[in-house]
Design goal:
Elements lengths: L7 H33 L13 H28 L2 H33 L7 H21 L4 H15 L2 H11 L19 H45 L1
Helix pairs in contact: 1-7, 2-3, 2-5, 2-7, 3-4, 3-7, 4-5, 4-6
């Protein structure tokens, strides 16, 4: 079963090749997406120019859940099969997911002030995303809380797997609870409730964030491999001494 995972050294070599290409693609999509968001996309008849916050907020929200799924899946395989690649990818992804979740919460608050008249409400969607933010923090804290880093990986992996329960709550909170948050604008690409002139920049910005995530993930993966080697050497040193 371990053969389904790429060897850390092989993945590191692949990442060195992919890294500059991902950076270039992300930059191109970001520039194009920002131009579409500010100059191509029309002003919303209800929200005015505040609608442009959507092009940062929505992709950040999608990435926060996507990255957490990536984190939990790698944590599961690392926990069950003890594979270094899975554990390292999970460790690398956590701070990136935390950052996108923070961006989602901040931009949502900035949008909420003119639209709802308040920075924050204990709305089902907002509260569940805040819970996701704390799951990310909990994962990172568990990683740093043990002198034996392998124990930290196991406990943080268990926490991340438990946190998966929160993802469907985030997704369906606007459908099953009375919430101020607007319902999903893109439920089906065949008939989205958002106008095509707003949908295009939204998708482009999501792609720019996605490639940015992959680029940063590669950099962090490389760094985490180095940190892992240092931790292993330190553990051997203390055992020998």
């Amino acid at each position: 079963m371990k053969n389904i995972f790429i060897n850390p050294g092989q993945l590191n070599k692949l990442s060195e090749f992919l890294s500059p290409w991902l950076a270039i693609i992300s930059f191109i999509f970001l520039i194009f997406g920002l131009w579409l968001s500010f100059f191509y996309s029309p002003i919303d008849y209800q929200q005015g120019n505040a609608v442009r916050i959507l092009y940062i907020h929505a992709p950040s929200a999608w990435l926060s859940m996507l990255i957490y799924s990536f984190l939990a899946i790698n944590s599961f395989f690392g926990l069950v099969f003890g594979h270094v690649t899975a554990f390292t990818l999970a460790r690398a992804a956590a701070p990136i997911g935390l950052t996108f979740t923070a961006i989602c919460l901040v931009t949502g608050s900035v949008w909420g002030k003119p639209m709802w008249g308040t920075w924050w409400v204990w709305d089902a969607r907002l509260t569940s995303v805040l819970v996701l933010f704390f799951f990310y923090i909990g994962y990172i804290i568990f990683l740093k809380s043990f002198s034996d880093f392998t124990k930290g990986e196991k406990f943080s992996s268990i926490l991340s797997i438990i946190g998966i329960v929160n993802l469907p709550i985030i997704k369906f909170s606007v459908d099953y609870w009375n919430t101020l948050h607007q319902p999903a604008s893109i439920s089906k690409f065949s008939s989205p409730s958002i106008h095509i002139d707003m949908l295009i920049p939204l998708i482009v910005m999501f792609l720019s964030f996605l490639f940015l995530f992959l680029y940063i993930l590669i950099l962090r993966f490389q760094a985490e491999l180095i940190i892992r080697k240092i931790n292993i050497n330190n553990m051997k040193f203390y055992k020998d001494s």
